[in-house]
Write a structure and sequence with these properties.
Radius of gyration: 20 Å
Number of strands: 9
EC number: 5.4.99.30
Bound molecules: the ligand O=c1ccn([C@@H]2O[C@H](COP(=O)(O)OP(=O)(O)O[C@H]3O[C@@H](CO)[C@H](O)[C@H]3O)[C@@H](O)[C@H]2O)c(=O)[nH]1, manganese (II) ion
Helix content: 25-40%
Pfam families: RGP (PF03214)
Oligomer: single chain
Function: Probable UDP-L-arabinose mutase involved in the biosynthesis of cell wall non-cellulosic polysaccharides.
Mean pLDDT: 95
Strand content: 15-25%
Number of helices: 10
Family: Belongs to the RGP family.
Catalytic activity: UDP-beta-L-arabinofuranose = UDP-beta-L-arabinopyranose
Low-confidence stretches: none
């Protein structure tokens, strides 16, 4: 049996970003998997509240006062009283990879009863290529025990660099409020042992609760928008980031994977509160999706920042008439890039090796 090379730990190349409004006792369960890593905790809500972090973890914590101090007026692009604040953690990180997880997500077990090291699986996903140009029916061909099936073009078997690894959830599924309301008792008990590349030209609903990405490849696109306090919408932070990220990945020839790893999502947030946050998004998205499906980025947009700034122009031009919110969001997208480049001057215009796809 060919020996399987161990997954690199990447402990000095990856930060774990956690948005939170509560003490982080959940880390106890993750300790065996997370302890070697540096945590970036983004404390939302009242900055005078103390967030307790279990001993033994290496972390930096930012509350709203810190965000305002560091970004000054640009802090206006970081949401308040919404998990969207987590993207501040992506911006201040100096590492190549990010894993972000919610504080009500715990270690899940696979069908054999083995505890799932979600972080290790995300690292495997990010370090192996994606196949956005041609679908492999045996799922991820780079996984142990799988390969490309007959008829898969050899010219495409090298794949492309993976920018995003989107994990899933056992127990409480990430349903929208209407679905939560009609199916309050539904739990996800299906462990599907598969990882798939989301094909080029296809959007997907990116959930932020169990997500990893290559910050150097796609970080500037991972802006979680204007949500929460003072905003007409919530719970579309990760969706917005996912749609922007996917059209930019398609343009730059980068891959997005979804599937393993699973986490155990323990708490259903209040469906009535969620409905209030989501309802505008539920009808706006019927216009947002055709917009993202029709986005064409110029060939000379060869960096994520250039793509993102071009996208913000198109958001203003085409979505500003849907609601004035999108004019504000388009401006906030520009502020986000300005803040990102201010905090990350070294890679301010890093051209993506693959460059735009024809
Ligand atoms: O005002 C807030 C509320 C919560 N948080 C932190 O964000 C995550 C998610 O919170 P929670 O688990 O309560 O909410 P869910 O509905 O399960 O989250 C899912 O919906 C998405 C909302 O955009 C989210 O990305 C999904 O995971 C927790 O860590 C809270 O502590 C916050 O920072 N501010
Ligand atoms: Mn949750």
């Amino acid at each position: 049996m060919a020996s399987v090379s161990p997954t690199p730990v990447l402990k000095d190349e990856l930060d774990i970003v956690i948005p939170t409004i509560r003490n982080l006792d959940f880390l106890e369960m993750w300790r065996p998997f997370f302890q070697p890593y540096h945590l970036i905790i983004v404390q939302d809500g009242d900055p005078s509240k103390t967030i307790k972090v279990p001993d033994g973890f290496d972390y930096e914590l930012y509350n709203r006062n810190d965000i305002n101090r560091i970004l000054g007026p640009k802090a206006s692009c970081i949401s308040f009283k919404d998990s969207a604040c987590r993207c501040f953690g992506y911006m201040v990180s100096k590492k190549k990879y990010i894993f972000t997880i919610d504080d009500d997500c715990f270690v899940a077990k696979d069908p054999s009863g083995k505890e799932i090291n979600a972080l290790e699986q995300h690292i495997k996903n990010l370090l192996s290529p994606s196949t956005p140009f041609f679908f492999n029916t045996l799922y991820d061909p780079y996984q142990e025990g799988a390969d490309f099936v007959r008829g898969y073009p050899f010219s495409l078997r090298e794949g492309v660099p993976t920018a995003v690894s989107h994990g899933l959830w056992l127990n409480i599924p990430d349903y929208d409020a209407p679905t939560q309301l009609v199916k309050p008792l539904e739990r996800n008990t299906r462990y599907v042992d598969a990882i798939m590349t989301v094909p080029k030209g296809t959007l997907f609903p990116m959930c932020g609760m169990n997500l990893a990405f290559n910050r150097e490849l796609i970080g500037p696109a991972m802006y979680f928008g204007l949500m929460g306090d003072g905003q007409p919408i919530g719970r579309y932070d990760d969706m917005w980031a996912g749609w922007c990220t996917k059209v930019i990945c398609d343009h730059l020839g980068l891959g997005v994977k979804t599937g393993l790893p699973y986490i155990w999502h323990s708490k259903a947030s209040n469906p009535f509160v969620n409905l209030k946050k989501e309802y505008k998004g539920i009808y706006w998205q019927e216009e947002l999706i055709p917009f993202f499906q029709s986005v064409a980025l110029p060939k000379d947009c060869a960096t994520v920042q250039k793509c993102y700034l071009e996208l913000s122009k198109q958001v203003k031009a085409k979505l500003g008439k849907v609601d004035d919110y999108f004019n504000k969001l388009a401006d906030a997208m520009v502020t986000w890039i300005e803040a990102w480049d201010e905090l990350n001057p070294s890679n301010a215009s890093a051209e993506v090796a693959n460059g735009p796809k024809k």
